């Protein structure tokens, strides 16, 4: 009880100093808690949707075999309408209804603007069923009852200013058709962003499936007293022998949908938790520094307690109790802040098009428990070393000296361990650059990053002594005596400076590494485009939709073009003469002109010949592994089609990232073995302009595809800009998340300086007494902060560039062979670190300048 009172007294006595450490805990816990609340809320939203949009039993087309992808034909798989009659006659069926649904559509308004979802959520077209009535309510007009009518969801109508009577055009692989809005339906549950358009059943069948005798699903409602499991069993018996249908209960359908969306949610969840972990790691340095300085300042107090009979264990317990109090305060506030962060994330996602309602805000028992446990455990672990160090001080040494004597032997051991770890990490990074394959290089790269990071943290005091002196010679010496005093203050306790700089080092090392990797990816892809792509224009959908035939026809009719090339991704199993089987081979069916649109080096044979009758090409690595050479015949089993025997006319180089390892054949050859209804659509198309007509062709292509806004025409300049923008957006998102760790690191600098000012109160008073002005004192503290920040930045950026260079060597094995270091970004971050140091010093410098000289001198 006495220890608790003492700890509570000390905690409250230093509440200002504990506040910044508590903020570090708060931010880290808030990120973890916010992530859990956000993902739990998304799960709740989708659970509600899936629960009301699934019938008691659903019958649909059978899924493709595991690992096999269905061809992108632009039409959904369907089943014959006769199945509806068979299911409806099953005992225990209250009602059976045929459903039509397709996501391979684009809906545009009268101005040819896409009114579909823009957040990555699907645009779903289908017929209105009783199942839809469970999740949506017609709030304006009426549901479609005949051809030429369409109903839209209220969210889509609001976003795109649609009203009853407006005309919408729906683009499908079977053709375009228009309809007037007859009604608007509002979701009864939260709609996370999908755009819904519904038609009468016959129109939906005819336009989306190409036949009025087919459905995409049969929605079955159980009679009263009949369980879903029993109904599924009876339906399966009625459809026995077909083997072509998938039958699911409501729970099974909901679970399958949750599994499909689960991978997307997991990516968000684990990415955010990863950044929260980085923030926790940075926060550990702040907490260690805080308690180290507090223990050092209370050395005399600890000596008196030991002299009065307190044991070493009691001293440890006292410090750790303060850490528990700090962890509890920071964690409780962090959990509350995490709920607020989740709400902010929901608003941000809403602005991006994914609507999440705060009515579904989900805070489970797991969130506060995980937040509290993490916050308290991390705080206690971080405070354990200072607590142990304080407990080891003998009573006489403590009473004789107000500071904690340095342990020279411990410093030498620490330095040796740090150097060994750094050397091991450096060797691992080097080994990753010498590996022959990405699989072999990845473990070395991971080991190198972890070992060098830990090594640099451990040898931080040694690095501080060297780097701070070098920086001071450039930055501080110009400020005369004040600069030299700032340098000595930064070097007075290298361990403290090293720990403070290490917190900033971690975040900036990751920034530098990702900048090098991102810049190298852009430079490599740009270089590949310049060297490999001969086509002037590239046409594709940014959402991965195949190019519908009517858009293809419009593109082919555009003037000023020399040729247009079709490109289809096929799914096939390839068997070499020696028996080597390659499933899901990267086979592309293209027009012969693709040989000039993509300039590939050939190791054997001729790529032009690969587009001949019953011919193909293979990649160099495959040829070597399967012992295949030009002239051999491969057995190719096309998914959804027949088996062909194709002659290898060329072996192509696998260098580069564009179509690396891809096998080519002619579209005409593929059509001999794949039925028309199973032939994939064109995922991408290429076009070349007539000589000197590039500008006219570019304008003509854009004009011809204006009615099809889902597709984008890009010349090579546009394509390079798109690559830069995509990678830049991803990096900006990562930098934004890393900003949390950098904020925590800045708090560490503030806390270190604030506690350092308190520690040097008497010294500051003496300097003021002999003539140091307030302005000079504040400048000295600001310069000390700047050099500590620049130390962390210099070490972090250097370490990060080393990581990025090693990572680029690994990427070079996959064709990204250009190393590009973004020097403007690196220089900008380094200069910004100086401003960070100035910002962090504002409060400590202001506080030091306000000290009363006589009171400061009289301080013990």
Automatic annotation (TrEMBL):
Q: Per UniProt, which keywords does this protein have?
A: Cell membrane, Membrane, Transmembrane, Transmembrane helix
Q: Where is this region: Disordered?
A: 60-79
What's one GO-annotated cellular component?
plasma membrane
* Presence of the UniProt keyword Cell membrane in the record: yes
- Name all ABC3 transporter permease C-terminal domain ranges: 275-395, 737-852
Q: Where in the cell is it found?
A: Cell membrane
| Residue ranges occupied by any MacB-like periplasmic core domain in the UniProt entry | 19-237, 500-697
Q: Which Pfam families match?
A: FtsX, MacB_PCD
Tell me the superkingdom of the source: Bacteria
Q: Which family does it belong to?
A: Belongs to the ABC-4 integral membrane protein family.
Q: What is this protein called?
A: ABC transporter permease
Q: Which organism is it from?
A: Streptomyces montanisoli
Q: Lineage of this protein's species?
A: Bacteria, Bacillati, Actinomycetota, Actinomycetes, Kitasatosporales
């Amino acid at each position: 009880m006495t220890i608790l009172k003492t700890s509570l007294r000390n905690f409250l006595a230093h509440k200002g100093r504990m506040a910044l450490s508590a903020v570090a805990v708060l931010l880290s816990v808030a990120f973890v808690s916010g992530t859990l609340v956000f993902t739990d809320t998304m799960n709740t939203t989708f659970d509600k949707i899936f629960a009301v949009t699934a019938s008691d039993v659903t019958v649909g087309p059978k899924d493709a075999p595991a690992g096999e992808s269905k061809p992108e034909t632009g039409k959904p798989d369907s089943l014959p309408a006769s199945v509806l009659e068979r299911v409806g006659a099953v005992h225990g069926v209250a009602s059976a209804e045929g459903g039509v649904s397709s996501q391979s559509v684009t809906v545009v308004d009268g101005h040819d603007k896409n009114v579909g979802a823009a957040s990555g959520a699907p645009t779903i077209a289908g017929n209105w069923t009783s199942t839809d009535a469970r999740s949506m309510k017609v709030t304006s007009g009426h549901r479609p009852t005949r051809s030429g009518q369409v109903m839209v969801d209220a969210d889509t109508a609001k976003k795109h200013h649609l009203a009853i009577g407006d005309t919408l055009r729906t683009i499908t692989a079977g053709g375009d058709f228009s309809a007037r809005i007859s009604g608007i339906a509002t979701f009864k549950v939260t709609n996370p962003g999908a755009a819904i358009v519904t038609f009468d059943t016959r129109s939906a069948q005819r336009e989306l499936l190409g036949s009025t005798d087919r459905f995409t699903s049969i929605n079955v409602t159980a009679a009263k007293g009949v369980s879903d499991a029993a109904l599924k069993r009876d339906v399966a018996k009625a459809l026995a022998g077909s083997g072509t249908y998938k039958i699911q209960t409501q729970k099974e359908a909901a679970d399958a949908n949750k599994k499909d969306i689960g991978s997307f949610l997991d990516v968000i969840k684990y990415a955010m938790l990863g950044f929260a972990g980085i923030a926790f790691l940075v926060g550990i340095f702040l907490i260690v520094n805080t308690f180290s300085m507090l223990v050092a300042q209370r050395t005399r107090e600890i000596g008196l307690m030991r002299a009065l009979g307190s044991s070493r264990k009691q001293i440890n317990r006292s410090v750790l109790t303060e850490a528990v109090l700090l962890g509890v305060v920071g964690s409780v506030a962090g959990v509350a802040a995490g709920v607020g962060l989740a709400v902010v994330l929901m608003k941000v996602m809403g602005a991006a098009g994914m609507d999440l309602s705060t009515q579904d805000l989900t805070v489970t028992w797991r969130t506060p428990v995980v937040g509290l446990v993490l916050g308290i455990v991390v705080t206690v672990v971080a405070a354990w070393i200072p607590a142990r160090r304080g407990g080891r001080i003998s009573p006489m040494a403590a009473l004789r000296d107000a500071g904690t004597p340095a342990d020279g032997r411990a410093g030498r051991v620490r330095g040796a361990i740090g150097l060994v770890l750094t050397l091991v990490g450096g060797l691992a990074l080097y080994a990753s650059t010498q590996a022959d394959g990405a699989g072999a290089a990845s473990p070395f790269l991971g080991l190198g990053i972890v070992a060098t990071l830990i090594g640099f943290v451990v040898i931080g005091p040694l690095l501080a002594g060297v780097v701070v002196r070098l920086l001071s010679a450039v930055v501080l010496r110009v400020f005369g005596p004040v600069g030299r005093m700032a340098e000595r203050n930064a070097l007075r306790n290298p361990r403290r400076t090293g720990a403070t700089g290490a917190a900033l080092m971690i975040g900036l090392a990751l920034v530098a590494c990702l900048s090098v990797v991102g810049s190298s990816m852009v430079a490599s892809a740009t270089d590949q485009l310049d060297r490999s792509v001969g086509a002037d224009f590239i046409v594709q959908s940014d959402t991965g939709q195949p190019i519908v035939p009517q858009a293809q026809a419009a593109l082919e009719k555009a003037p000023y073009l020399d040729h247009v090339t079709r490109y289809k991704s096929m799914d096939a199993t390839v068997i070499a003469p020696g028996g080597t089987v390659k499933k899901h081979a990267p086979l592309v069916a293209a027009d012969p002109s693709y040989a000039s649109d993509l300039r590939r080096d050939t190791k054997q044979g001729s790529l032009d010949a690969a587009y001949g009758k019953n011919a193909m090409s293979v990649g160099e690595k495959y040829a070597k592994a399967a012992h295949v050479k030009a002239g051999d015949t491969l057995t190719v089993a096309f998914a959804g089609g027949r088996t062909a025997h194709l002659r290898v006319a060329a072996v192509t180089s696998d260098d580069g990232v564009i179509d690396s390892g891809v096998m080519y054949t002619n579209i005409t050859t593929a059509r001999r073995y794949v039925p028309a209804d199973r032939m994939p659509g064109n995922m991408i198309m290429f076009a070349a302009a007539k000589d000197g007509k590039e500008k006219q062709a570019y304008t003509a292509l854009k004009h011809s595809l204006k009615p099809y806004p889902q597709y984008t025409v890009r010349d090579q300049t546009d394509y390079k800009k798109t690559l830069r923008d995509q990678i830049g957006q991803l990096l900006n998102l990562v930098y934004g998340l890393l900003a949390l760790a950098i904020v925590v690191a800045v708090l560490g600098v503030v806390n270190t300086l604030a506690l350092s000012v308190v520690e040097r109160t008497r010294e500051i008073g003496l300097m003021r007494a002999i003539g140091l002005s307030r302005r000079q004192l504040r400048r000295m503290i600001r310069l000390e902060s700047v050099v500590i920040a620049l130390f962390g930045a210099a070490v972090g950026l250097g370490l990060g560039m080393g990581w990025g260079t090693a990572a680029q060597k690994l990427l070079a094995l996959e064709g990204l062979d250009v190393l590009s270091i973004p020097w403007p970004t690196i220089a900008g971050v380094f200069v910004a670190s100086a401003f960070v140091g100035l910002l962090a010093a504002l409060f400590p410098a202001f506080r030091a300048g306000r000290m009363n000289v006589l009171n400061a001198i009289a301080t013990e």
